[in-house]
C-alpha cells in the first residue's frame, strides 16, 4: 500500500534503470509514475517483431552472469529467473577462424582458481603463471588504460581476456579503463565459476527483463506513460518545481521527487551544469533466420573474425560485435554477408545463400569506457534535493551493462527513500 504522506516519485525513462527504480520504490510502498518518451519500455534492452526476418529479435543480444547480484535480485522479485538459461558450470567456448582451433574455458565453482592448473580447462598454449596478470589487475590503483596495467598480448589476453573485456567495456580493452576492467574481473573471474555462468534469454531479452517488470508494475497500479517525453525541468531554489512534457506540465509538491533515468546526452540537455560522458561507442547486432546445428552451445566467442559472439537461439542465430565503428558506414548487405561467413565457418553451415537477416546498428550504444570518460560519470545525487540520476552511464563502478543499469536504479530508489524519510521526520 502506498504511503499517504510520502509524495509521488516521477521516474523519467522506462529503460532497465527506470524500471528497476520503479520496482524497488513500489516494493517500499511509494507512489510511482513512470514517463517514457518512446512507445515501448526497455530502452536498449527490448525485443520486437521484425518484418524482414519474420522473427521476434532483440535490438541487442545481451547476457547476464550468475554473479550479477542486482540483476538476479530484480528477476527474483519479478518471478522471472526461469526465463534465463545457461550451463550448469561456467563454460566459455571459443573458436579461432584463422587457426581453426576450438577450445572451452571451464572455471571451477570456488574462488580458488584451480582451473588454471588443468590443461583441459584453460586457454590452449598457456601455463598457469600466464594468468598472474589478472591477479595484479585486481590491486591496481587509480584509473589508467589497461595497457599500462598489464601486457595486452599473448594467448591468455587474446583468447580470453580481450573477448570478455571487449564485451563488457564495449571499447578496445587496451585503451579501456583499468578501473572498470578491474571491477569486471573482481566480480566475475576472481569469484570463480559460481559467479561466471553465462545466462541468456532464449526467447528475447524483453521477454525476460522488461515484460515481467511491466506486468509486475501494472498489477500494482503503477502507470507507465508511453509517448510522454520530458521537454524540460523547472527549477526553483534547490528543488525541481515542475515537469514540462510539452503539451502539459506537472507541478511537483513539496514531497514529490524525480529520478532522471534517460541517456547521458538527454540528461545533459535537461540538467544545467551536469557533467556526463560525451564519447560513445557503437554495437552492431546481426540476426539470421536459421536453425543452429544440434548440439551447438548457446554462446560461442570468436577471435580473428568480424563476428565476436555468436548466439544459437531457437530458430535464429544472433551475433554481437562490440566497439563496431568499423562497420557503421558499410552497406548493410556487406555487413550481413561478412558476419554470416564467420557464422557459417564456426557452425559448419553453408555460406550461401545468405539467410533472411537483419542488422541493428546502435551508434551510441554505451559511453566509451576509457579513464577519461569514466571520470565524467556523475553520482546519483544532484545539486537539487528532489532530483536523482539513474542509468548505466552514472557512477556505478561498472561499465555500461545490464547489471550497472539495475544497480543505478536501485541506488537512486534508495536515495529517494532516504530523502523521503528525512523530509517526513523533519516535518
From TrEMBL:
It holds the Pfam family Amino_oxidase. It comes from the Bacteria. Residues 16-416 form the Amine oxidase domain. GO terms for molecular function: oxidoreductase activity. SUPFAM superfamilies: FAD/NAD(P)-binding domain (SSF51905). This is FAD-binding protein. It comes from Pseudolabrys taiwanensis.
